[in-house]
């Protein structure tokens, strides 16, 4: 990144880091030149290489104050973590009194660049946040948190709204403690999620940098190799279906981030359409969209995602005109198999999209009469589609604040077009999340109001069925204890999206709930095969299925893989403790339970007890007793009654 010189100020949206070396001023006062030389060496040899690795623009002031600007807030947080970890490693080599620590504040917003200086509200906020974090830690603004918390796996602590000096409005602050950065042993592997979000989080798409993606994949590969499980969860060219395909995120040629959701929306619709064709094999959005925003080697994509073909595209929108270029490429030979262009009015885009999936399938020699579109009928004008794409992207972020945004946009759509049933489906999912995940308050609702609204919108969406409709219905019916109807809903979801991993997972879950864990395994394994970069959830449910089937050693092996990927999953550690308890491994079981209780305390939840097993949605009392028995052997206190 370069700063323009000799020009008028340039206003850009940037991620800003303000770092402060703790105690530097005291060293100046003591005239400790040896220590100051050592700090200068740390800046040159430890801090600056990290900044240069992310191509940050940097400036030091007064020797101890760092200002750094990044094109990506993900890069900013990753760089800050690496700086803190590198400093911590150096400090271990030194006596305590010689240790050097840094506080770092991070914000995301407008920055004014002029000659060798930077200013603006984002810089001011980062400067104030720096003073709110502990030495060796981070403090980030809400704007940065919303961009990054699904993408960089850290234990973010909501520090509440804070009045900051020289700022008119309060800023919500999130902190990351030094110990949580230090415990992050695989910083680029997977994104941190709440344990209860194991169904909805499969929709989310972390926008990782390519270097982060590479490390993520290496970490997953090493994990599978160590577990002797590579063949089952990491596809290879020898075992792929001949027509396996990945749809990469389309590129927004406008270069305006406000238009990104349109490019993502068109690619997402294509994935949904292809997922509805049983003869096709399409990689889930949650895996293929990890390549967003970076140039990629198509042969590497093919190997990592286990596909032969890749679809990519570009989107350029100017007022009411839009151009979409789409290509189907043989990824290993990089030969273009098929290409098409739509160049016309936005109102005509729906007809092009309805043919896009069909043309891709024809190029793959998959004969099918028609493809059911992602939305069952065209909206009255593109303005509705525009808002729907924006709402769906907010929904995919899987954050209560973003769900509130998605709710507002979807309700806006229904005011303009009450018959747009896809809006009802996503609203049903949002309100169910409000109830099921204790997010109703963030939607300005009580839990009961959120549940009532979920049912109301579900009933409307059932008039024009989508896989999401039945996925939500299955979850809600299982919660009510209507397991036969829940299983039927899962079957309906699978019939509409036979290649949709969330539909396969939903079926697997319902089979587990209804006492058929062995039958669930084939759905879970197929779901994992089409979502190879997002394995933690599938591994958890496989572990649960194997536990209920009585294969405790296999359950332990699979659950260890799951919690290695997602260390913050209290459910995974809980069922792992039960599997260990059943095998008489009390020491390991107690350790797993300690992790469960620590995670729950940190999340503000009550500690787990045997009494809580009754809340698991098992149709069979025997399954509930088996889980309770394992947890009792593990040392969990209480009674199952």
CATH architecture of one domain: 2-Layer Sandwich
In terms of structural class, how would the helical and strand content be classed? Answer: alpha/beta
**Main sheet characteristics:** 8 strands, mixed
Helix content: 40-55%
Based on CA atoms alone, the radius of gyration comes out at 25 Å
Q: Would you identify the CATH H-level superfamily of one domain?
A: Nucleotide cyclase, GGDEF domain
CATH-assigned fold name of one domain: Alpha-Beta Plaits
Total beta strand runs: 14
What characteristic shape results from the CA principal axes?
A: globular
How would you name the oligomeric state of the polypeptide chains in this document?
single chain
Low-confidence stretches: 1-12, 27-31, 185-240
What would the average pLDDT be, to the nearest integer? 80
Number of helices: 25
**CATH structural class of one domain:** Alpha Beta
Strand content of the residues, in percent?
5-15%
For the terminal residues, how far apart are their CA atoms?
62 Å
Written account of the structure:
β7 and β8 (171-176) form a beta hairpin. α15 (421-436) runs antiparallel to α16 (447-461). The model is unreliable at 1-12, 27-31 and 185-240 (pLDDT under 50). The protein has 25 helices and 14 strands. Among the domains are: 10-182, 2-Layer Sandwich (Alpha-Beta Plaits), CATH 3.30.70.1230; 235-374, TolB, N-terminal domain (Rossmann fold, 3-Layer(aba) Sandwich), CATH 3.40.50.10070. The chain is α/β, with parallel strands linked by helices and 641 residues long.
